[in-house]
Amino acid sequence: MKNVNTNWKALHDDHFKGARVLITGGAGFIGSHLAEALVTLGAAVVVIDDLSGGSEENFASFGPVTFVKASILDQQALATCTAGCKYVFHQAALGSVPRSVEQPVLYHEVNTTGTLNVLNAARTAGVRRVMFAASSSVYGDNGVPWIETMPMLPKSPYAATKAAGEALLRAYSASYGLDTASLRYFNIFGPRQNANSAYAAVIAAFAKSMLAGEHPVIFGDGEQSRDFTFVHNAVHANLLAARHEGTLGGEVMNVGCGGSVSVNDLARMMGQALNCPQLTPRHAPERAGDLKHSFADLKRSTTLLAYRPIVDFKTGLAATVQWYADTLQGAQV
To answer: Which residues contact 332 (CB under 8 A, 6 or more apart)?
Structure first.
């Protein structure tokens, strides 16, 4: 199996050794990779997750992790988990644009009110800094490359909740002195991303279809492009933001690879990698809220955090495709 063996110790030394940290949504895709890196770095990791989109299996291969099964809407559970923590990595959210169009009230409650609850718990606990999983979806129809100074133009309820979360983090920094940072993720992908959801992200959805011998579905003409970003890059950005020596004050920073791949090209690459180039995509109508292009300008995250991508797209895709082949091949999918 093609693994991406990132040396977290070489990148982050002892900065997190002995620190108690909370990861909301830590049983999910990105949260579990963050938990794994922090465990490797010697942190005392607490995870709160209601398992609506994650699984305890995601952190079964490493440990120890203190796991609390609860929602971020449960203020008492949040308070208990946050007590004594130095950092909070807020990854918990409902994450699908199409589903948010269908269920806007639910998305507001979990993503916006949930973020408010996390901030209140962190403020009460005297946390040093909260890192927020923000989203490039807030850019909407801005022209690429996307720069943090552009206006937020959310096109979906999901994007709107992420815009609201950023505003809350900045407000809590200004009003209460709780230091915060918003990391705008660009199309994060990698092992453990759920392929079994009707709202699965494109790489996961393509892998599931192709491994089942089915033609993948592209919504629209496939010329839409994405700055696909391997999950270890998002983990690295979170760790850099946490250990930043100054005050971030709710600053917003892009987390991407600074590249662009069309969905049509992605389908071709995955077909070749999985030895099924004959499974060409079939096209369906565009979906409400979907964006045409995404492309991250990384100057601000490079300047403030010394962030740079540590895993390029092709390396990450090869490892991810192999993981899906190993996980889904022959399985009931």
So the answer is: none
| List of residues 6+ apart from 6 with CB closer than 8 A | 37, 232, 235, 236, 310, 311
Which domains are present in the chain?
9-188+231-258+291-311 (3.40.50.720)
CA distance 15 to 302: 19
CB atoms within 10 A of CB 326: 13
pLDDT of 208 strictly over 70: yes
Q: How far apart are CA 199 and CA 40, in angstroms?
A: 31
Residue 321 tokens read as: 């495709």
For residue 174, give both structure tokens.
């200004």
Cis peptide before 104 (omega within 30 of 0): no
Averaged confidence pLDDT in the chain: 96
Task: Please state the rounded mean pLDDT for residues 108-136.
Answer: 98
Are 36 and 62 in contact, with CB atoms under 8 Å apart? yes
pLDDT of residue 291: 85
Task: Output the CA–CA distances (angstroms, integers) from residue 196 to 6, 87, 168, 210, 286, in the order listed.
Answer: 27, 32, 32, 13, 21
Residue with tokens 């269908």: 102
Say if residues 21 and 33 touch (Cβ distance below 8 Å).
no
